[in-house]
Amino acid sequence: MTDLATVPSLHRDGHRATIHFNRPKVHNRIEPADIVELMRLLDQVDADRDIRVLVFTASGKSFSSGFHIGEIGGGDGEGAPGFEDLTDRVERVRVPTIAALQGGVYGGSTDLTLACDFRIGVEGMGMFMPAAQLGLHYYPNGMRRYITRLGVDAAKRLFLTAERLEADELLRIGFLTELVPQEALVARVNTLAATLAANAPLAVQGMKTALNAIARGEADFDAIAETAGRVRQSADLKEGQRAWHEKRLPNFVGA
To answer: Hey, which of 4, 52, 78, 196 has its CA 20 to 30 A from 190?
Structure first.
């Protein structure tokens, strides 16, 4: 049975929420029970309208080694969410998401981080996708995320060779949004999270949803225009205009 003390945990600090992976001894691998708990935590984040940014963190040598290899192909149980359900759910989170990659990221967790909006990595980290070495054909939405984020050539390189890529190359191909020294990770993530939380939440969340839909080729441009029209009538836009003219920082309330 899974030790409940090791399932992912959620911490709230002002407008920021943080989900922490708690299995450092096994490189923060994700167990079936963790998927259920993470889905619950993501629902909790979406339900709290005061949360404006979500950060994924971990401790230990690796950010995450992905789904427990021994559980692949074992069945999820009737009605239980699978790993693809989890990564799709991360992509759909209402607020901007940041993956704070303090160490290597492998297997399915490469897709989980690609489902995040920002990926801040550290010097010396690496990643690889071992599907071909395991005899595993990857699920479709994971391959789609690889292609839309990294391009088809990088996706083929990673999926078909199972080659490990190091930090500088991960930055070059776009897997990492930013690359920082290990000692600078926390400060950079905090700064980015504060920036995202300070911006107008209706505009930020609406544009995040629209940009992801456009990237998937599933955009409803009439619906995007309707959302943009509602935001133009918001109190936040009026506050942003006043703050601009008064040369001060705006105080957005999400309405």
So the answer is: 4
